[in-house]
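Q: Got a minute? One more chain.
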Amino acid sequence: MAVLWLSKMNRPLPILLSLMTGGLIFIGLMTVKLTERPTKQAELEKLTVVAAPETLSVEIEASGTVQPVDRVNISPKVAGRIERLLVDQGVIVKRGQPLAIMENREIQAQGLQSQAKLKEAIAAYETARIRIPSEIKQAEMRFEQAKASFLESQSRFKQAQARIPGEINQFEAQVKSAESRFKLSEVRLQRNQELLKEGAISNDQFDEALNEYYNAAANLREAQQRFEQSKGTASPEVQELQQAIIQEQATAAETKIALEQRKSTAQAELAQLQAAAEAAKAEMERIRVQYEDSLIRAPFDGIITQKYADVGAFVTPTTSASSTASATSSSILAIARGTEIVVKVPEVDIALVRMNQPVSIQADAFPNREFQGRVTRIAPEAIVEDNVTSFEATIGLMDEKQPLLSNMNVDVTFLGQELNNVLVVPTVAIVTQKGETGVMIPDMEDKPKFQPVTIGLVLDDKTQIISGLAPGQRVFIDLPEDSQKKEDK
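A: Always. Here it is, folded:
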């Protein structure tokens, strides 16, 4: 059949040559293809990595320094000279322990004087507390006596008013009775005179009648005198009693006023003396506080880290201090308590730091020892140094007896939780195009193609992919030379 087909062709040789040439070209192309493909595959594997699930340990590294938990410069409240220095650098002290003594002899003298004044003021107050009630009691007694005298005079006056008219009437009745007896004796005498003339009676009988007459006359005169005297003395006695009442009433009023005044002034006097005692006590307390201030005491348990002044140095009440003990200083000592570590965490990592987070610590001074700590404080405000934004995190040490000293340099590692089975790519694979984050993946021709992704945690050289990429997909970590040339153009 082939021979017949060839025999039918007018020119069979060119056709055969064409077929042979085409076959050779096809075989050559296929050979090139087969030899070139492993080379491109190797180059692709060199420029890309496979996105695969991994377990991420969230760790953040930072550097910091050891600092005291509390540190203060100690200076006096009042400027003065140091009389005694009781501690030196490196000494461990307790809260309230005396550290230095300022010159205080003048204060001591003032304290003794104020103490004496306080005793004097208290004695005056206590004396007044005893004396004033006694004076009030005496004033009350004088008032009661004056009131009693007034009531007595008033009673005598009333008695006189009731008694004098009765006495006058009595004397008047006595005069009338004497007059009656006188008249009767006068009649009898006249009758006896007639009888004597007639000789009817004897002289003795007449003498008896005469003697009766004389007695009656004498009694009448005496009664008349008493009557006249009673009328003459009644008015002066009443007036005298009235004057006595007025005087006694005035005396009673005066003693009452004096009593009320003493009562009213007693409280004021006691209050004044008590206030004087309180003022003396306050003055002594002020001097005592001033004396206590001359004794420089430790504000808390700690260690003396610096000594800035010596005995005889003049120091002032400020918080500044020099770095050398021989320099002019306004502080005496520096005291510190406890140790903690302060590190600066970059802004991109601060979201991964949390309170009570465990921390591993390495110190240059102890290269073969690892210390443990926890985050105790995270600064709420960032600090910017050399255009780098960071946040200060404070780490408390777990072992209080650790040997780290203030201002030592340390490296810390914040230990976070483990993230299991998360999709991870190298951080260098993350690119940005037109403000969008993504990765470069091979297209159908193994050329880089931008693929938007959502990223999660970025831990040094690894980045978590939340969405936009599937496990097993390759991503470029370096672009082919032809792609870089295109980007450069």
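A: The two ends are 61 Å apart (CA to CA).
Q: Perfect, thanks.
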